[in-house]
Amino acid sequence: MAGGRPRKAASIATLIIVCLVFFVDIANIGMANIALPTIQETLGYDDGSLQWVLTAYALTFGGFLMAGGRLGDIFGHRNILVFGMTLFNLATLVCALVQDKIGLVVGRAFQGLAAALTIPAAQSLVALSFDDPQSRIKAFGAWGAAGSTGFVFGPIIGGLFTSLVSWEWIFWLSLIVEGALQLVATSLLLTHNIPGASSQSLPDADKMPSKWSNLHVRLDILGTFFSITGLVLLVYGLTTGNIHGWKEPGVVATLVAAVCLLAIFVIVERKVAADPILPSYMFDSRVRVIGCAAAALTYAIWQGSNYLLTLQLQSFGFSPLSTALRFLPLGITAMLVNLIIPMLLKALGARTLLLASWLLCAAGLVLLSRMGSADDYWPLCLPGMILYIAGVGTVYFVGNVTVVATASEALQGTVSGVYNMFLNVGGAVLGVALLTVISDSVTSKAGGKKDSNALLEGYRAGYYGAIAMTVIGFILAIFFSSTKTNDAVETQRESSKPEQDRKSATRVVPKEPVAANG
Q1: How far is CA 318 from each of CA 34, 77, 322, rounded to the nearest angstrom?
Q2: Is 188 helix (H, G, I), strand (E, B) or coil?
Q3: For the chain, which domains are there?
Q4: Beta strands in 219-364 (DSSP E)
């Protein structure tokens, strides 16, 4: 009993830290998104290259998440979290200083790489800090609410600084906040007895050489290389093909190379890699397979629709700040959803919530697709945003909890990395890239971007593409396991106990395993 209160306080401290990290990451995405038209005008991006400000972040984020989760499993989630925050600050400094199209994309790519280290580490710390299933669900609710809050304030802050100062200040502000947060996080995580964050996360000193010597095997360098290069070429081929034509030899060669590299990635994972970043056990559970597929669709709809909606509202004549304020109900809805869903999840179960959520999402996107002018914000855009984000937010939360709950403690970093990889790769490839290709293609055929009617038709086509994704998500949800999430979490807790005992033998302080206390 005496050790219960310190353990609880340490768990809460961990939760606060990682929620703040998640808040900053999500707010940064919203700030960059709302500033896109201004960035395009200042740096001279064309319509095809503008999306790289978003996709560069999403591709490195999603592509390295599996490796990021693995690094957390090897060296300790707290250590990788602190290192990732340092890298994020350096990349943000680059974004704030450069005045070049390529330089900004490179800075955003390294921001994504840094987030690939911090997010799975932070998510694993949430899971490891709460042994009780209901407490863990509530903790993930707070985690989701932190991201939703970042989504609320990110666009507003971005619109404010873009309108009143300059777009560069969205990165200066991120640097200031993240830098201060890093100082606090480093102090608390490295010096306090926080579950999953103490020095026991590090291997024994005499085992460090073998850890480093096998690092290339544990990280699956070949798999990471082929997955990243394949995805980058795929997105590049989609964007250039829409601009230069799908029969252009360079476009065809790029897409063929992308498919070949991704095929090699699959072969490497199945036949070559001793410790693959996309392990076969990810596909031996219906919950994991459908959860990861739903994750890809979730972020595809979210990022793709927000990208289109940002450009569309500003094409109606709204300023960046005015556009950001009109996104406010969307963010507030997402925040409320993350607070309510834990109760509904316990009462209704995962499959029922998923089915209802996809229906809400589709209804909201239908309303967005009917917008024709600035006057349609209140009757169509506002209710459309509320419905679609309520659906997307619920799918994200349910998938997050159920997929991570299927993993033992030793594998939670890897599993959360794979889950978040599907989220962000789906957002980059299926969302921003594919929906932009659909939208721009229809706009071009209808008369070009200088024709307001053609532009409107393009936006509608993009929303129709997102609606098609909700149909796929609904079909997948029909086959989702009817087992309630509470049972899955309880099963995970029981099955992870032997793994916790095994892991404790490899830590510096073997008497205090990461998640075994309390």
Answers
A1: 11, 43, 6
A2: helix
A3: 4-199+213-220+273-504 (1.20.1250.20), 221-272 (no CATH)
A4: none
Check if the beta carbon of residue 330 is closer than 8 Å to that of residue 385. Answer: yes
Nearest to 342 by CA among 420, 394, 407, 415: 394
**pLDDT tens-place values along the chain, 518 residues long:** 445 566 677 788 878 888 988 888 888 888 999 999 999 999 988 877 888 999 899 888 878 877 887 788 788 888 888 899 999 999 999 999 998 999 999 999 999 999 989 988 888 888 778 878 888 888 888 887 787 778 778 999 999 999 999 999 999 999 998 898 888 878 776 655 554 444 344 443 344 445 555 666 667 889 889 998 998 899 889 888 877 888 899 999 999 999 999 999 999 998 888 878 788 888 888 889 999 999 999 999 999 999 999 999 999 999 999 999 999 898 788 878 877 888 888 888 889 999 999 999 999 999 999 999 999 999 999 999 999 999 998 998 888 888 888 877 777 766 776 887 888 889 888 888 899 999 999 999 999 888 999 999 999 999 999 999 999 999 999 988 655 444 554 444 444 443 333 333 223 222 222 222 23
Q: How many whole angstroms separate alpha carbon 377 and alpha carbon 453?
A: 17
Pick left, alpha or beta for residue 500 (phi over 0 → left; psi -120 to 50 → alpha; otherwise beta). alpha
Cβ neighbors of 247 (< 8 A, separation 6 or more) are none
User: Rounded to two decimals, what is the model's pTM?
Assistant: 0.80
Neighbours of 385 (CB within 10 A): 26
For residue 340, the tally of other CB atoms under 10 A from its CB is 14
- How far is 43 from 55, CA to CA, in rounded Å? 17
- Token code pair at residue 56: 């560069």
221 neighbors 256 (Cβ within 8 angstroms): no
Q: Are 188 and 21 contacting, i.e. CB atoms less than 8 angstroms apart?
A: no
Please tell me the distance from the alpha carbon of residue 143 to that of residue 264, in angstroms, as a whole number.
36
Tokens 């659906």 sit on residue: 391
Tokens of 122: 């932070």
- How far apart (Å, rounded) are the C-alpha atoms in residues 431 and 440? 13
Number of other CB atoms surrounding residue 293 within 10 Å: 16
What is the Cα Rg of the chain in Å? Answer: 22
CA pair distance 386, 329, nearest whole angstrom: 7
CA distance 16 to 140: 12
Q: Where are the beta strands (DSSP E) in 400-495?
A: none
> Between vectors from CA 197 to CA 497 and to CA 425, what angle results, nearest 5°?
85
Type of residue found at 309: L
Measured CA to CA, the distance from residue 15 to residue 146 in angstroms comes to 10
